From TrEMBL:
<dbReference type="GO" id="GO:0006275">
    <property type="term" value="P:regulation of DNA replication"/>
</dbReference>
<comment type="similarity">
    <text>Belongs to the PCNA family.</text>
</comment>
<comment type="function">
    <text>Sliding clamp subunit. Responsible for tethering the catalytic subunit of DNA polymerase to DNA during high-speed replication.</text>
</comment>
<comment type="subunit">
    <text>Homotrimer. The subunits circularize to form a toroid; DNA passes through its center. Replication factor C (RFC) is required to load the toroid on the DNA.</text>
</comment>
<feature type="domain" description="Proliferating cell nuclear antigen PCNA C-terminal">
    <location>
        <begin position="119"/>
        <end position="236"/>
    </location>
</feature>
<dbReference type="InterPro" id="IPR046938">
    <property type="entry name" value="DNA_clamp_sf"/>
</dbReference>
<dbReference type="InterPro" id="IPR022649">
    <property type="entry name" value="Pr_cel_nuc_antig_C"/>
</dbReference>
<dbReference type="GO" id="GO:0006272">
    <property type="term" value="P:leading strand elongation"/>
</dbReference>
<feature type="domain" description="Proliferating cell nuclear antigen PCNA N-terminal">
    <location>
        <begin position="3"/>
        <end position="98"/>
    </location>
</feature>
<dbReference type="GO" id="GO:0003677">
    <property type="term" value="F:DNA binding"/>
</dbReference>
<dbReference type="GO" id="GO:0030337">
    <property type="term" value="F:DNA polymerase processivity factor activity"/>
</dbReference>
<dbReference type="InterPro" id="IPR022648">
    <property type="entry name" value="Pr_cel_nuc_antig_N"/>
</dbReference>
<keyword id="KW-0235">DNA replication</keyword>
<keyword id="KW-0238">DNA-binding</keyword>
<dbReference type="Pfam" id="PF02747">
    <property type="entry name" value="PCNA_C"/>
</dbReference>
<comment type="function">
    <text>Sliding clamp subunit that acts as a moving platform for DNA processing. Responsible for tethering the catalytic subunit of DNA polymerase and other proteins to DNA during high-speed replication.</text>
</comment>
<dbReference type="Pfam" id="PF00705">
    <property type="entry name" value="PCNA_N"/>
</dbReference>
Length: 240
């Protein structure tokens, strides 16, 4: 049995994952709950972990189970701010009780998803950018005026974002900003899907920090905190 008094971070986490992945495998063990999976087109990989200490009670048998994330997202979205969640796992189903002014019980059948556990991309990056989530979302909204993709660059301690199309051109730079911190071993230029990036950061709190790790013409690693848990995305690059 797993108990959780604050359901809000779980709602945001499941929403972030289900934006890309409709179903996938969760691992429950004595460390906590772990999810790793890719979207159907294999453009983005999500790696998510909730440490057992985050839960108010955590007593589970080790298990590796398939869950429909789209349906799980629909269920946890029904949690009210005052609700307390109790989660139980059996051999055939996941049971979620939301206890507040009313007690509501939901059951999801477990799925047989044959995908093996995925390996993470090699962690070799030339630059990292720590940027306020609100600033990044606004820059991506600006980019959407002209294109469906963005070019991200770093030069020294500066961060740049570019978007261009037949309607116009956008150039964003970080000179100098308290909301952006760049660490760079080499200048970086790489191109990514704008829609994927917007979905990656949509559940980051407005005051949270999104960390982007970059290498020219290579997948991007984006990570941020949701409550006391961390979610990590690996996004494939596009050809320049």
């Amino acid at each position: 049995m797993i108990e959780l008094n604050d359901v809000s971070f779980l709602k945001s986490s499941i929403d972030a994952i289900s934006s890309f992945i409709p179903e996938g495998n969760f691992r429950f063990n004595d460390r906590g709950v772990h999810f790793r999976g890719t979207d159907p087109s294999q453009v983005v990989l999500v790696d998510y972990f909730i440490d057992r200490s985050v839960f108010d009670s955590f007593e589970v048998e080790p298990a590796y189970v398939g869950i429909n994330l789209s349906e799980l997202s629909r269920i946890v979205s029904r949690a009210q701010p005052q609700d307390h969640a109790v989660i139980n796992l059996s051999e055939s189903e996941l049971r979620i009780n939301l206890r507040g002014e009313l007690e509501r019980s939901f059951k999801l059948p477990l799925l047989d998803i044959s995908d093996g556990e995925l390996k993470l991309p090699e962690a070799r990056y030339d630059a990292s950018v720590e940027i306020n989530a609100r600033l990044l979302r606004e820059a991506l909204k600006d980019a959407s005026l002209f294109s469906s993709s963005v070019v991200i660059k770093t030069k020294g301690d500066r961060f740049f974002l570019e978007s261009k199309g037949s309607a116009g051109v956008l150039n964003v730079n970080s000179s100098p900003s308290k909301g952006v911190k760049v660490k760079s071993k080499a200048d970086v230029t790489s191109k990514y899907s704008l829609n994927y990036l917007q979905n990656i950061v949509k559940e980051a709190g407005p005051d949270s920090v999104v960390t982007l790790e970059l290498r020219s013409d290579s997948p991007l690693k984006a990570s941020y905190k949701i409550g006391k848990s961390e979610i990590v995305f690996y996004l494939a690059h596009m050809l320049l």
